[in-house]
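Subject: complex prediction, re-run

Hi both,

The earlier run crashed halfway through, so I resubmitted it with identical inputs.
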Amino acid sequence: MYQRTMGALAFVGGALLAASVLVEAAGPGGPQEASTTPSKGRSIPANSSVPGATDRARERDPLAKDDREAKILAVLDDLDQHRRGTMNVPREDGRMLRVLAESIGAKNVVEIGTSNGLSGLWLCLALGKTGGHLTTFDIDPGRFELAKANFHRAGVDALVTQVLGDAHEEVLKMKDPIDLLFIDADKAGYLDYLNKLLPLVRPGGLIVSHNMASPPPDPEFVKALTTNPALESLFINMHDQGLGVSLKKR
Ligand SMILES: C[S@@+](CC[C@H](N)C(=O)[O-])C[C@H]1O[C@@H](n2cnc3c(N)ncnc32)[C@H](O)[C@@H]1O
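This time it finished cleanly. Structure:
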């Protein structure tokens, strides 16, 4: 019985791993193609027995505090229902982005990898409260337009500046201090984004890096996050795609 249970757990774990390998890994400078993502909305059931999964039994879906939040959450719900080739963050990572951005009172948030705007909308939940602004970069014109439409219908156009182009080049135009940098574009390019933007992240600011579990991150990027004494880096939600949270120390 014990062996059968362990076998079943191993099978579930293997299936999750196999699904996660299908997530995108675009090369530098090239737009990512549609891919299957293991996470649609709440990716791990609340009572999951997946090894390493966080016990989410006490969590509930976000509750709108006001009409503005309700409008954004309605679009997020809609996008979660119809994800297709947009490679979005899982819902729990989106919620974490909001919590992080709002708790540090982020005014200037920079996102590399807009896609259809889903993670940007989670960030906008915070920015509507902090009086902040999101600058988000994407190289793909189709996803740029999708995001534009989603930001519009969520009523957050005024909170967002979208930049269309290769972020490796475009970020060099940034000059203002960054409160929160979210990296979620071409996986081989993370180290370049970090090297270019870390000097702009303010002391006490955050670097949030997506896909720290799956697809496997660039070891040099992980090394840069974990061996720099100026950073305190943690890795969370690693049962799914994984999120790096790095504090630039004061
Ligand atoms: C994983 S998706 C972003 C998902 C988004 N953050 C979300 O959760 O809703 C990665 C995006 O990065 C974009 N991308 C890839 N290489 C890029 C580059 N060199 N410059 C800008 N964007 C790039 C792709 O077009 C794609 O839309």
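The beta strands are 108-112, 133-138, 160-164, 178-183, 201-210, 231-236, 243-248.

- K.
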